[in-house]
Amino acid sequence: MKRSPDAQIRSSRAKSREVWHSAGVSRLRSTRTALLLAALFTTPAAAQTVAITGGTVALGDGSAPIEGGTVVVRDGRVVGAGSGVAVPAGAQVVDATGKWVTPGIVAGFSRLGIVEVDGVAPTNDASARNTPWSAAIDIAPAINPRATPIAINRAAGVTRAIVSPGSAATMFAGQGALIDLGADMDAVTRARAFQFVEFGETGAAGAGGSRPAAFLQFRNALKSAQRYARNPAGYDGDSKDAFLPTADAEALVPVVEGRVPLLVHVERGVDILNVIDLRREFPALKLVLVGASEGWTVAGQIASSGVPVIASALNDLPDSFETLAATQSNIGRMKAAGVKVSIGTINDDEARMAKRATQYAGNLVALQKVPGAAGLDWGQAFAAITSGPAEAVGLGGEIGSLRAGRRADVVIWDGDPLELASTPTRVWIDGVEQPLENRQTKLRDRYRTATDGALPKAYER
């Protein structure tokens, strides 16, 4: 884990306070020293043993909420959660009576931290159009923990995010990362966590203009990776005529060998089947379907394949030729057919609005009451925004639930988290309590208490 144990942190903080008091703030002559000391006292509190008692506990694993439950975390990990969990001696006890306690929300597909303003190129690192590389691109160095959407989504209960690059020059976008939304500068939980590739209409455009060209480009790229794996020294990927640069071939080796998941954006039903069929030729592929607006039309085949899906929950209009069968019942119908399905936000303001996940999950619960529609029960819907995305990318043993041993990403809500009126009151990431202040709350507080004369009147010139 990236954060220090309790004893080390307490010792470090104690020594720092001695330095602070002995030096005297007024006598600090070094700007750099002052900034370092200031930063020390604005970081989140250290991880410790915390027992959250009396709340309605949702484990995030698909089970029903537990009333009057207890959650215990120690050294940044969950020790136990549920009913009958003992409170350790010396633990900090947090009374959550009348509130809900859940794992943090996992943004199933996002571009959090790599985009500030879409139309301003220097603030948008999602894709690179003028580069010879594609699959080798690693999005991790672009993650900015101080990007405005990070704090805003953290305050909405989002604690982890699956962050993907976007494709540009080819159908291969590059290597995505899992990040946390903590208030520190160490955001990347796992770099190069998956490879992302575009099929369907976008993939066809990146491969020259047709779906057959996209599938051919994909096959050739993976075969090139296999050749590189067999003989790295003999692989000629640096000449101008090389089909796949050496760096890209090297990056695709873990994919073709099944050591890294391959997230595939695909919407149309027949495209989904063709992507799944790629495993006949490359049987080790760990496929994850992203989007899948027409997934319900081939739900049986997806379920039989065992391929997980990170679907768009509100994609219910035919806004393209590959989403003609889009419906809000898509996720419910896939789940009913046995598909392992969770929620993502691809092409849905994914650089900023991961916090909509709770609304989308709540909508799926409400759909159960609509005649002819298909939704999810509460436990299934909450798992679709917590453990579901984590399991899809092979990290269910680390994040996404309150099962023992998982990272202590915990949120206390003032009500049912799938209700629009509910909001987080406290958030922990890796057992460290996080600040909930952000740019939006600062603007709210500034302007709702503005006095006459503090701001110019609209009618004055």
From TrEMBL:
Residues 305-426 form the Amidohydrolase-related domain. The keyword DNA-binding does not apply. Keywords: Hydrolase. The keyword Hydrolase applies. InterPro entries: Amidohydro-rel, Metal-dep_hydrolase_composite, Metal_Hydrolase, Metallo-dep_Hydrolase. It comes from the Bacteria. One of its GO terms (molecular function) is hydrolase activity, acting on carbon-nitrogen (but not peptide) bonds. This is Amidohydrolase. It comes from Sphingomonas cavernae.
